Amino acid sequence: MRQEPAGVIARAGLSPSVRLIGHRLDVERWLRVADLFVLTSHHEGLSNATLEAMASGLPVVCTRVSGSAELLGETGAGLIAEVGRMDQVADAVARLACDPSLREQMGEIGRQVVEKYYSIDHVTEAHLRLYRRLLSGSVPPGEAR
Predict the structure, then answer these.
(1) What is the C-alpha separation between 124 and 48, in angstroms, rounded?
(2) Residues of the chain with pLDDT under 70
(3) What is the 3-class SS of 125-145, one letter each residue?
(4) Phi, psi (5° rounding) for residue 141?
(5) Concatenated DSSP letters for 30-83?
(6) Cα–Cα distances in Å, from 15 out to 49, 62, 125?
(7) Residue extents of the structural domains in the chain
(8) CATH homologous superfamily of 5-136
(9) Are 70 and 39 in contact (CB under 8 A)?
(10) Who has the most CB within 10 Å: 4, 16, 77, 113?
């Protein structure tokens, strides 16, 4: 039987510090006041929400889906937990909650990674290079990377 999140939060005594805010249009405002970002997906492509959090300077705790290990673990922008391992997620959140300098360091790295590799200018230029290679015939079929 699935438990409602608000009930789980209340039973754990976390109501004073955990709020479920639902769908929002002012995400940037919420990211500015957050200390860290957590995404516990079981299946996910490259998460725009994760990139937005990183661009906002937040350290990220994410499950090992799609390219999250490369995006976070290899860059130092966040911590990775195995899918379904909420104990690992909790440990990562606790580690960041107890270490403001680590949060700041990871947040800054994340912001730099997004600026360098995921800015609209960078992504546009990468696509243009790929299209030029495809049009010139220098990319064999199936190798368009």
Answers:
(1) 16
(2) 1, 139-145
(3) HHHHHHHHHHHHCCCCCCCCC
(4) -55, 140
(5) HHHH-S-EEE--SS-SS-HHHHHHHHTT--EEEES-TTHIIIIITTTSEEEE-T
(6) 24, 23, 46
(7) 5-136
(8) Glycogen Phosphorylase B; (3.40.50.2000)
(9) no
(10) 77
